C-alpha cells in the first residue's frame, strides 16, 4: 500500500524465506532470515542501502543492519525480544494451526486485526497469502521467536534508526517501544496514537511521510 508513496526510491521487496514465492531456507529463526537477505543484497550488489521492515521483517532488519553497512534502518512495529510466551493465547493459537489453514478463520482474523479501518479486500488478500504458508512454517517461526534476543545486534548498529509504532499494538506494546528507544546509538522513535500493529496499512500516507522525512534528513536534503 505504501509503494506508490515511496516512488522516489528504488524498492527491493523480497518474500521472506518460506513466505510467498520464496522457498524455505536453512532455518526459521530471525538470524536465518537475515542471512538469506544479506546474501541477496550481496548478489544484487546494490549501494547505498536503507532497510525497512515490519514486525518480523523489522526484527530481521535489525539483524541485517548489525552485520551490514547501511545508510539507515527503519522499523515498523518492531521488537527486540518477540517471545510471546509458550502459554499465551497467541502461542497456543499458532501451535494449533493445521493444514490447510482457513484464510477466513478466527486465527487470521485476529492476526490481521487493525486498530484503524483497512480495506477488507486488501486484508483478505493478505490472509490468503498467509494461509498459503504451511502450518509447520508458522510453528517454526513461533519457536524461533522464543530464542530471539536482538539487543546486542541493535547495540552494534551505527546507522541511524527510525522506529514507528502504534500506541494500540496488541503484540508489541509500551515495554517493547521503550526498549527500542534505548537500543540504538542514533534513534528517532515515533508512536502513532490509536494505531495498531499495522500502521503502514492503517495510514500509509502518514507512515510514508515519516519515512521520507527521515530519509531526507539522512541524505542532507
Indicate the CATH class of the domain at 3-83 and 147-219: Alpha Beta
Number of helical segments?
Answer: 10
* 3D shape: globular
Major β-sheet strand ordering: 1-2-3-4
| Fourth-level CATH superfamily of the domain at 3-83 and 147-219 | Alpha/Beta hydrolase fold, catalytic domain
Termini separation comes to: 25 Å
What is the makeup of the main sheet?
4 strands, parallel
Number of strands: 4
Low-confidence parts: none
Structural class: alpha/beta
| CATH topology annotation of the domain at 3-83 and 147-219 | Rossmann fold
Mean pLDDT: 95
**Share in β-strands:** 5-15%
What would you say the CATH architecture of the domain at 3-83 and 147-219 is? 3-Layer(aba) Sandwich
How is this fold's topology laid out?
Layout: H1 30-44, E1 50-54, H2 56-66, E2 72-76, H3 89-95, H4 106-111, H5 120-131, H6 135-147, H7 151-156, E3 161-166, H8 174-183, E4 187-192, H9 199-202, H10 204-219
Parallel strand pairs: 1-2, 2-3, 3-4
What does this molecule look like?
- This protein is α/β, with parallel strands linked by helices.
- It has a domain at 3-83 and 147-219: Rossmann fold (3-Layer(aba) Sandwich).
- The chain contains 10 helices and 4 strands.
- Strands 1-2-3-4 form a 4-stranded parallel sheet, sandwiched between helices.
- It is globular, with a radius of gyration of 17 Å.
- The model has no long low-confidence stretch (mean pLDDT 95).
